[in-house]
Structure formats: structure tokens, C-alpha cells
Design goal:
There is one protein chain. The chain contains eight helices and 13 strands. It has helices spanning 21-27, 79-93, 110-117, 153-160, 196-200, 261-271, 292-295, 298-306, and strands at 3-8, 11-16, 53-54, 73-75, 141-143, 167-170, 177-180, 206-208, 221-226, 235-241, 244-250, 280-283, 286-289. The strands form five sheets. It has a four-stranded mixed sheet with strand order 2-1-4-3, with helices on one face. It has a three-stranded antiparallel sheet with strand order 9-10-11. Strand 9 and strand 10 (235-241) form a beta hairpin. It is globular, with a radius of gyration of 22 Å.
């Protein structure tokens, strides 16, 4: 693929043809805020926070879905762009809980980060607010739809990474929410607990339940570890606080590598000396507590060896 010439913030650069404006900016060290964009997933251009100003275009296009063109002149932080981004952040904050002090995602939340960066400390918009019940029915995922910004990352991760399509957009307008079919709880759905949705959530709407309340993001260090329970070799992260392992979290996965529950539970058992809670698996549509041997399939392995 050949190179084309464009201008970004007054600087003439060459970038590969066919890439997006966002990718072109990132390749030259220019940071553009994004919420719905995730490089491993399809690009919906939904949140609009990555808008830029392009000479000759009437509106401010989303940079994550706008392809570069020869001679394109781009401004990533013009006054019009900054003002529009501030308005978008205000709209998001208008219906978002202001509980950052107690949120597990504090310090690792993109909405919090961008609100600080653009100095948006409150919303100028009023009106009705959601008051959903927190869904803690799932033993491995804590879901708070009040904090959801409808970026759709979890929907695409479930479909495109895990290949399951457990959740999707439900209802319309102000009542739009992300939920399993028939608006069931995660425990009642076909969720396989791969936690891909948790890894891509930019806010505190989806939290790893095993790590909730165990430490703030700046207190936790992470170490990559490879799962050895099958030939896929999926990557997980050991979470340390004060030098001790407090849990295992899912890391990025590619298509066809869904970060199975067995791998995460087994890795936790191997590396976490304080791992005493028994795992839960689905039997006949119900979540039941089982032994580690059963959850990890050790009994099946032993029976095959005896045969």
C-alpha cells in the first residue's frame, strides 16, 4: 500500500493510504480521545468524541471512521473541535453517577480521564436520570448500567471476540440500554464468563467481580501470564497489591481466542495462594458451586488416563 501526503495540525506528513484519520494521527504521536473505538473491534463511530476538523467538510467527522485522502488538511484540536468534545462530555456526565471516589474504575476510567483533560467537572444539562438496579447475579462480572455510556464495546467484543452475542442494545431513545435477550440478568443469560466485555469497557459499567474492592488501579501492578490449560495459550494478567497476588484478570484476546473461564480459574488457582472461594459453573441452566477438580476438568483427565 502506497503513501499519501496529508497535513495534520499544520505539519505535512506521509501516511499509508487506506488508514483512518485516527490511525494517521496516532502514528505520528497525536492523541485523539476515543470511547467507542477499540482497535481489535469494528468501528461504529458512535461516541463522536474523536471528531476532528477537516478542511472542506461542513461537519466535524469522526476520525475513527474517516479514511485519509491525498492532500487532506486536518485539525485535531481546533477551538471548534474542543468545544464539541466538551459538549459531548457534558452530555455523557448528565446521566452518569458522580461517585468516582468509590468507583473501582477510578484512575483507569476513560470518561474520568477525558473530563479532567478537557476540564469538564460538571454537566450543564439537566433532566431525568436512570436508576437501574446493579446486576450482581453473575459470579464473575459486576454490571452497573447506570455507568454505561452506550459505547457498544461490550456488544462488539461479545460478538466479534467471543462469538456469542449475549448482549445487545435494547429499547430506544432515553431508555436504551445494553442487556441480554429479554432484558435478563447476566446469570440468566448464556454468558460464558470470558470477561472480554470487562477488558474493553472504558468506564465502571462492567467490573471483574473477583477484584472488586481489593485495590485501586494505582495500587495494583500487573504481570502477564500464559494459560497452559489448552493449546491456545491465552494471555491473562496476575494482579498484585503489596507484593501479593489478589486475583487474575482477562487480558486482550484475538478472534477465536475467547479467554475461557476454565483458563482464568485455573490460572488463579495456580498463582493465587489466597484463592479459597469455590468456582461456579452452569449446570442445566443454573449456576452451581463445584469443586476445583470438576471446574478444571481434572476428574475427566484422570479418568482418561486410567482408561
Amino acid at each position: 500500500m502506497g503513501l499519501i501526503g496529508i497535513t495534520i495540525n499544520g505539519n505535512k506528513v506521509e501516511v499509508p493510504a487506506g488508514i483512518t484519520v485516527l490511525e494517521a494521527a496516532q502514528s505520528h504521536g497525536i492523541k485523539i480521545p476515543t470511547l467507542c473505538y477499540e482497535p481489535r473491534l469494528s468501528k461504529p463511530g458512535a461516541c463522536r468524541l474523536c471528531i476532528v476538523e477537516i478542511k472542506g467538510m461542513r461537519n466535524l467527522p469522526a476520525s475513527c471512521v474517516t479514511e485519509v485522502a491525498q492532500g487532506m488538511e486536518i485539525e485535531t484540536h481546533s477551538p471548534a473541535v474542543i468545544e464539541a468534545r466538551k459538549t459531548i462530555l457534558e452530555l455523557l456526565l448528565a446521566n452518569h453517577p458522580q461517585d468516582c471516589l468509590a468507583c473501582d474504575k477510578a484512575g483507569d476510567c476513560l470518561l474520568q480521564q477525558y473530563a479532567y483533560e478537557y476540564q469538564v467537572d460538571r454537566s450543564g444539562f439537566g433532566g431525568e436520570q436512570h436508576n437501574y438496579e446493579i446486576d450482581d447475579s453473575n459470579p464473575y462480572i459486576l454490571r452497573d448500567n447506570n455507568k454505561c455510556i452506550l459505547c457498544g464495546r461490550c456488544v462488539r467484543a461479545c460478538e466479534e471476540l467471543a462469538g456469542r452475542s449475549v448482549v445487545d442494545f435494547a429499547y430506544r431513545g432515553f431508555n436504551t440500554k445494553i442487556a441480554p435477550a429479554l432484558d435478563l440478568s447476566l446469570a440468566e443469560s448464556d454468558c460464558a464468563f470470558c470477561n472480554n466485555c470487562v477488558t474493553v469497557c472504558p468506564v465502571g459499567a462492567l467490573i471483574d467481580k473477583q477484584l472488586a474492592g481489593k485495590g485501586r488501579s494505582w495500587e495494583i501492578t500487573k504481570e502477564d501470564v500464559t494459560c497452559a490449560f489448552c493449546e491456545n495459550g491465552c494471555k491473562f494478567e496476575l494482579n498484585y497489591k503489596d507484593g501479593k497476588v489478589i486475583g487474575v484478570s482477562a487480558k486482550e484476546a484475538g478472534p477465536g481466542r475467547p479467554l475461557c473461564l476454565k483458563g482464568r480459574l485455573g490460572t488463579d488457582l495456580l498463582h493465587n495462594p489466597n484463592c479459597t472461594d469455590l468456582p461456579m459453573i452452569r449446570k442445566d441452566g443454573q449456576l452451581v458451586e463445584v469443586s476445583w477438580a470438576e471446574a478444571l476438568g481434572i476428574n475427566q483427565i484422570l479418568s482418561k488416563v486410567k482408561e
